[in-house]
Amino acid sequence: MAQLYYKYGTMNSGKSFEIIKVAHNYEEQGKQVLIFSPSFSARDGAELVGSRVGFERAAIPINEDTDLYESVQSYLTLPGTKRINCVLIDEAQFLKKHHILALTRVVDELNIPVMAFGLKNDFQNQLFEGSYNLLVQADKIEEIKTICWNCDRKATMVIRFLDGEPVNTGDQIQIGGNEDYKPVCRRCYYQAFRDVETTTD
């Protein structure tokens, strides 16, 4: 039976690269996949999944009002399409509750496995809407691990930087790259803000 998988990790953990690898493995066996990415994630453009190591794949954009169940079903009716073997979701933390519920229908009613990849918590250590609903709805949850930017511990949090200084205020969603965010362990996360307080005292 198909299942809904949620694979989460911090920045630089290789989530988008993992999507590209999974898609390649399916297609090498002659199987068909659909890759979706939120249009409101502007890092690589609405119709592109891009990893930081340079690999790219075309993606179907998800808008605020997209019905993912209807979208997948529409591809099943295209001439020459016998079966969709897997649905892959990039930047799943940016999805809304209705997107996640539609994915559960893809799994339960169409019997198509769905793998959603994304961040779990934001730079303030709060869950994104998509992350929260995936944690509730997913059949299987897996962490994609990477190491802390500052030490050798496992990274579990993300620090946002502004003009080179760590910040913990601002909008939850602000697209950025390595100059704006760093994956860190819990100890280094809190130490960074203690260091700022010491410097400003």
UniProtKB/TrEMBL annotation:
Residues the entry annotates as binding ATP: 9-16, 90-93
Catalysed reaction equations from the record: thymidine + ATP = dTMP + ADP + H(+)
Biological process annotations from GO: DNA biosynthetic process; thymidine metabolic process
Keywords: ATP-binding, Cytoplasm, DNA synthesis, Kinase, Metal-binding, Nucleotide-binding, Transferase, Zinc
Active site: 91 (proton acceptor)
Record flagged with keyword Cell inner membrane: no
Binding site for Zn(2+): 148, 151, 185, 188
One GO cellular component term: cytosol
Protein name (Swiss-Prot/TrEMBL): Thymidine kinase
Taxonomic source organism: Paenibacillus baekrokdamisoli
